[in-house]
Design brief:
Layout (H helix, E strand, L loop, with lengths): L8 E6 L5 H8 L5 E7 L3 H11 L4 E2 L2 H4 L6 E4 L6 H10 L3 E5 L6 H14 L3 E4 L6 H11 L6 E9 L12 H4 L3 H18 L2 E9 L11 E8 L2 E8 L7 E7 L2 E6 L4 E6 L5 H29 L6 H16 L7 H29 L6 E6 L4 H13 L4 E5 L4 H5 L3 E5 L5 H8 L2 E6 L8 H22 L3 E5 L26 H4 L1 H20 L3 E6 L1 E3 L11 E4 L2 E5 L8 E3 H13 L7 E4 L7 H10 L7 E4 L1 H18 L7 H6 L9 H7 L7 H15 L1
Helix pairs in contact: 1-10, 4-5, 5-11, 8-11, 12-18, 14-15, 15-17, 19-23
């Protein structure tokens, strides 16, 4: 219900996640609004957001925020928190705008609505997509008869979440219903906006495994509405990502692109069908191309806002309170949409819980666990174990493969190394662990989850369950490359990388993980051995650029003249070292470099790859001073744009491969020398490549 006009709106914002920036940037444009504080359970995040928007007060709870005497609260937190926060805000005498969905259950919405009525306060929900200017424009055209009688409306949307960074799983990766609560809610109220209330709703969902941490990543819905049929498809896999609405009617169609803010209509015209189709397609193509270019310019100039519906929803609620008018979205509408979603959300959550129970089903004790068994080294190790031993072998992988699933000797545990519960399940009942798994690509969160959290989880579970030996696979990447003096033997005591943050996520997280293992050995008695292999090569890794070479655009950029020696080691020789380390007594806490001493230069490696027809082995030799100058220019550009860059002078200095590795520790402590060797390994590798080509 409308409230009396409020001259000065004192707004408190609860929740400093990504959506808060749209609300705060909108509220900052209103001269009758004073933003009195930002609250978030993450105090650092609250301070960061408040600093950006010039908000003087931050705290970690709504209770603390009450000290700033707000009269309106914007609740921008996950749906599970909406009920409690809304009731608390209303009890403080504040009007409330809550982000979609209004709550998780219809009965929660009823409690919120009843409390608002008791207090005589305004409660609204931010159904932002239907406030999007291009959606409002399309609705206006639909009412004016642009499509004749509407028959069907389709909503297509794809998205992606912040990657899982390890540790306790956040709601989007824990709850089966989360994707539908997040994006399905948009589709439902949009279908109602175009076609009237939904009378019957059927929803189907599935998990494809393309986004392995998301339980259900594909959702489809069919809605029987008052004035037609609605369909919805939301995905976390479709690329490029659509955000589109299509309206089909007896007299025409409307195509709404909410990302690009374009609206293209087609009318049924008199005349022959084929010329009409040609003219309509040509005209629409021209209109869409012009609209995209025009809107791109408008975005660049700041005249079009990103996520304009969220922006408008924040503005309209504040303006409604200021003018004493009804809010743009009623609480009753929010409740109706939640009621439509509730059954399918309960079902999806139950299905997700059952999947989790199955993933954590008890396993028979097993002598050995291999993490990263689907990777290059892990797969080679697994095949050797299958050939040389008779017992069961347990593996921890993100996705199962037919090879793993079809072998009765392999116990497959599927999950993320960053997930403490999954790792603990995989470790229980194990005697020896080959911890080979680590992140090899992705952003900082994936490296933290796969490498740092993965190693932390292995350490904790191994100590908890009394594992007898861990063989941890580190990397020579953790050593100081830029500061190494050529000709100095590289031993296990060689200096570690002093600036891992400058080298990139791989080196940074591998060093952090190795440090965790070494500390656990020293302070907690972890029975671990650390191996640092050089560049591992072998059949299946022919296209991987060796050290000192950058793979770009299907070509290898060799920094320097190509005469630098490579720290190579053949994959089967690394497997030998792993097996020796697992069985050797009295070597807990040892760090051992595993590098073939045979001299192989970059040019020699490239020549072998070229002779075998490896498509990527098209070398360009670039002098190091030229690369340093290029890197300096990229650094300047990064400072101008305020962004990190992949090419820096420090990385160019660090790209120089270390050579002259001492293998004395490997020989004396493990009894290891290369059984196959680099030369024979290169012949086998590139012979296999030539044969497959």
């Amino acid at each position: 219900m409308p409230s009396s006009p409020i001259q000065t709106l004192r707004v408190g914002v609860v929740g400093a996640g990504y959506v808060s920036k749209y609300h705060l940037s909108a509220l900052k444009t209103l001269d009758f609004v004073e933003i009195v504080g930002v609250a978030d359970v993450d105090a650092d995040l609250a301070r960061q957001v408040a600093r950006k928007f010039g908000v003087p007060f931050t705290c970690t709870s709504l209770t603390e925020l009450a000290s700033q005497r707000p009269n309106a609260i914007y609740i921008l937190t996950p749906p599970a928190t909406h009920l409690a926060l809304t009731l608390e805000a209303l009890d403080l005498g504040c009007h409330v705008l809550v982000e979609k969905p209004m709550a998780e259950r219809a009965e929660d919405c009823d409690r919120m609505i009843e409390r608002a009525r008791e207090k005589g306060l305004v409660l609204s929900v931010n159904h932002s997509a239907r406030l999007d200017p291009v959606v409002l424009q399309s609705l206006s055209r639909l009412r004016d008869g642009a499509c004749g009688t509407p028959l069907e409306v389709d909503f297509f949307r794809s998205s992606q979440y912040e990657p899982y960074g390890g540790g306790p799983r956040p709601a989007m990766y824990r709850k089966g219903s989360y994707p539908f609560q997040d994006l399905g809610v948009h589709g439902l109220y949009l279908l109602e906006a175009y076609l009237g209330e939904i009378r019957k709703l059927d929803v189907d969902y599935r998990g494809t495994g393309f986004e392995p941490n998301l339980v259900f990543d594909e959702w489809r819905a069919f809605a029987d509405c008052e004035r037609g049929v609605g369909r919805m498809y939301i995905s976390w896999n479709v690329r490029p990502m659509p955000n589109r609405i299509e309206v089909f009617g007896t007299g025409g169609t409307l195509k709404v692109d909410c990302f690009m803010q374009t609206l293209i209509g087609s009318r049924n015209l008199p005349g022959p069908k084929f010329p009409q189709m040609v003219a309509s397609t040509a005209a629409n193509g021209f209109k869409e191309a012009f609209a995209v270019m025009w809107n791109t310019v408008q975005f660049a100039l700041g005249r079009l806002k990103p996520s304009p519906g969220i922006y408008k929803g924040a503005l309209d609620f504040a303006t409604a309170l200021h003018e004493g008018k009804a809010p743009p979205v009623s609480a009753e509408e929010g409740r109706r949409i939640v009621a439509l979603m509730e059954d399918v959300c309960v079902r999806a959550d139950a299905d997700a819980d059952r999947r989790r129970e199955q993933a954590l089903a008890p396993l028979a004790p097993c002598p050995v666990l291999v993490t990263g068994a689907a990777g290059f080294l892990g797969n080679a190790l697994l095949k050797r174990l299958l050939a040389d031993t008779d017992g069961p072998i347990r593996v921890l992988v993100r996705r199962p493969t037919p090879f793993l699933q079809d072998n009765p000797r392999i116990q497959v545990v599927c999950g993320d190394l960053g997930d403490p519960e999954i790792v603990d399940h995989a470790v229980q009942g194990i005697q020896r662990i080959f911890h080979v798994g680590a992140a090899m690509k992705g952003g900082p969160q994936q490296f933290q989850a796969g490498t740092v959290w993965g190693t932390k989880n292995i350490i904790e579970s191994s100590l908890r369950h009394g594992v007898q030996r861990i063989v941890y696979v580190s990397s020579v990447s953790v050593l100081d490359h830029a500061g190494h003096r050529p000709g100095t033997p590289v031993t296990e005591d060689a200096p570690l990388e002093p600036h891992p943050e400058r080298r990139g996520s791989y080196t940074q997280t591998k060093l952090e993980a190795e440090t965790l293992v070494r500390k656990a050995v020293k302070t907690r008695g972890l029975p671990a051995v650390i191996l640092r292999p050089g560049q591992i090569f072998g059949p299946g890794a022919e296209g991987v650029a060796p050290p000192g070479i950058i793979g770009i655009g299907g070509r290898w950029i060799v920094v320097g003249d190509g005469e630098r020696r490579l720290p190579l080691v053949y994959v089967e020789d690394v497997v030998d070292a792993l097996l020796y380390a697992a069985d050797k007594e009295g070597i807990d806490g040892e760090v051992i470099n595993v590098v073939d001493p045979a001299p192989v230069t970059q040019r020699h490696y490239v020549a072998r790859a070229q002779a075998a027809g490896v498509s990527a082995a098209k070398p360009h030799y670039v002098p190091q001073p030229v690369m340093m100058a290029l890197a300096a220019g990229v650094e300047v550009l990064g400072r101008v744009l305020g962004r990190g860059v992949p090419l820096t002078r420090y990385r160019i200095r660090s790209i120089r491969p270390l050579a002259e590795f001492s293998v004395e520790a490997a020989r004396t402590k493990l009894g290891w020398t290369p059984r196959v060797g680099a030369d024979a390994g290169l012949k086998t590798t590139f012979r296999a490549s030539d044969a497959s080509g």
